[in-house]
Design brief:
alpha/beta, Carbamate kinase
């Protein structure tokens, strides 16, 4: 079993909280609704601990693609792009944090750009004592897709999934919940008529061909990249489960945090 079954990692995907086809456009009503739903869950289940993450959606991905920030940063123009990605990602984070604050969620941000030591796109070190202190006190640490200085690439971008992978190895959550607009991982994307209910490391190779990239710009890997990362992680961490689901519908968030399997479940299997 995972060490902390009452600890959840929850990502609000960029496609969920922004209009990914319109630059720098958030979905304020949906963000406010999700924040209110989280506040209710925390109030009703005070023993639950949560690390909240969110994607950058239409805020960070457009400049990231323009400047190739994830691959490498080495020129003055590249560093200008690095700062633009940081600015846009942090602007969305501010919108999310304002809504969490207004809803009464006790949240504070832990940006990777200020403290993560990264090499070739992977987190090597990150001082997590403050985050662990926050969790012990019932607070909600918030992370998000962010730029980072990189010992090999100069600069790069860490997706929320990249960050979750590192944090999961240190904090051992019971579940990682990836909330987007899709009902799960589709067998037949983009027709989207059938969701894959379960993916295991053993079955992943057979289902990979059916999993396509995201419909809009996503410089951090699209659906197949995200699922692949999570498949490797559940194989590495005994007891960990990952759920990919849609949080557009009211109460879906509450249901999955109560243990329901809406969407696609990723687990080690037999």
């Amino acid at each position: 079993m995972a060490d902390n079954p009452k600890l959840f990692f929850l990502k609000l995907g960029g496609s969920l909280i922004t209009d990914k086809f319109t630059p720098s456009t958030a979905k304020p009503d949906l963000i406010a609704s999700l924040a209110a739903e989280l506040a209710g869950i925390i109030k009703d289940s005070p023993e639950t601990r949560l690390v909240l993450g969110h994607g950058s959606g239409s805020f960070g991905h457009a400049p990231a693609k323009k400047y190739g920030t994830r691959q490498q940063v080495s020129t003055p123009e590249g560093w200008f792009g690095f700062l633009e990605v940081w600015f846009q990602a942090s602007a969305l984070n501010r919108i999310v944090m304002e809504n969490l604050n207004q809803a009464g969620v006790p949240a504070l941000t832990f940006p990777a750009s200020s403290s993560a030591v990264v090499s070739d796109g992977k987190v090597l070190r990150w001082e997590l004592a403050p985050m662990q202190d926050a969790l012990r006190r019932g607070l909600v640490p918030v992370v998000y897709g962010d730029v980072a200085f990189d010992q090999v690439r100069g600069g790069t971008i860490l997706s929320t999934e990249d960050i979750f992978v590192h944090l999961a190895r240190q904090l051992n959550p019971g579940r990682i919940l990836l909330a987007g607009i899709e009902a799960g991982v589709w067998v037949d994307y983009p027709a989207n008529t059938q969701v894959i209910p379960l993916i295991t490391p053993k079955s992943w190779g057979d289902t990979l061909d059916a999993v396509q990239g995201a419909a809009a710009t996503d410089v951090t890997g699209g659906m197949s990249g995200k699922v692949g990362e999570m498949v490797a992680l559940v194989e590495e961490i005994p007891g960990l489960e990952v759920l990919i689901f849609s949080a557009e519908q009211p109460e879906n968030l509450r249901q999955v945090m109560s243990g329901a399997n809406l969407g696609t479940l990723i687990k080690r299997g037999e």
